[in-house]
Amino acid sequence: MSNRAKTNAANQGGLPKPITLPGILLGVGLGGFVDGILLHQVLQWHHMLSSSETANISIGSHPVTTIEGLQMNTLWDGFFHSVTWLAVVVGLGILYSRITVSRGRIWTSRVLWGWMFLGWGAFNVVEGLMNHHLLGIHHVISGDFQTLADILFLVFGALLIAGGWLLQRSGQPVDVAD
Cβ distance 32 to 87 under 8 Å? Predict the structure, then answer.
């Protein structure tokens, strides 16, 4: 640790703050963007309320085959994207506040990327369990392979969590105050 970092750490009463929280928030937000952009918009496999007719809760009928249904699904997709965007903005804000110099080094850090992958995986697991399985408001795809696709979504999330954990553990902590 450089003299400046030691002085900063001593003045703050401890070591520089870790990048765990901003990494996880960035992973949640960016993972949500991948889901929303790829699955909702590009592939159009589902929207936020596309399984409303068979959902486990009463949310009304919003089939994407009608203009009104597509409008409601697009509105809720927008709310979803707003939340993921806020996660990225907050994650960047916290990360920036924890880095005084060495900003270039932090982006090459296995620690940051590991936490981001872990956050993406956590997003997939929580969103998959809540929306696909518990509430049933949408599924990765509808039809014959619906359950398999929903389970693979969870497995992918679990692999991201495990891979992210291992990646951040294999990295050297970046002195964010250096």
Answer: yes
Tally of CA atoms within 13 A in the half-sphere of 166 that contains its CB: 6
Q: Give the Cβ contact number of residue 74 at 10 Å.
A: 15
> Distance between CA 90 and CA 118 in Å, rounded?
17
- The pTM of this model reads 0.84
Three-class secondary structure assignment of the chain: CCHHHHHHHHHHCCCCCCCHHHHHHHHHHHHHHHHHHHHHHHCCCCCCCCCHHHCCCCCCCCCCCCHHHHHHHHHHHHHHHHHHHHHHHHHHHHHHHHCCCCHHHHHCCHHHHHHHHHHHHHHHHHHHHHHHHHCCCCCCCCCCCHHHHHHHHHHHHHHHHHHHHHHHHHCCCCCCCC
Residue 19: pLDDT above 80?
A: yes
Do residues 118 and 170 touch, judged by C-beta distance below 8 A? Answer: no
User: How many other C-beta atoms can be found within 10 angstroms of the C-beta atom of residue 14?
Assistant: 8
What are 32's two structure tokens?
């949500």
Residues 6+ apart with CB under 8 A from 70: 47, 64
Tens digit of pLDDT for each residue in 107-142?
Answer: 778 989 999 999 999 999 999 999 999 999 999 999
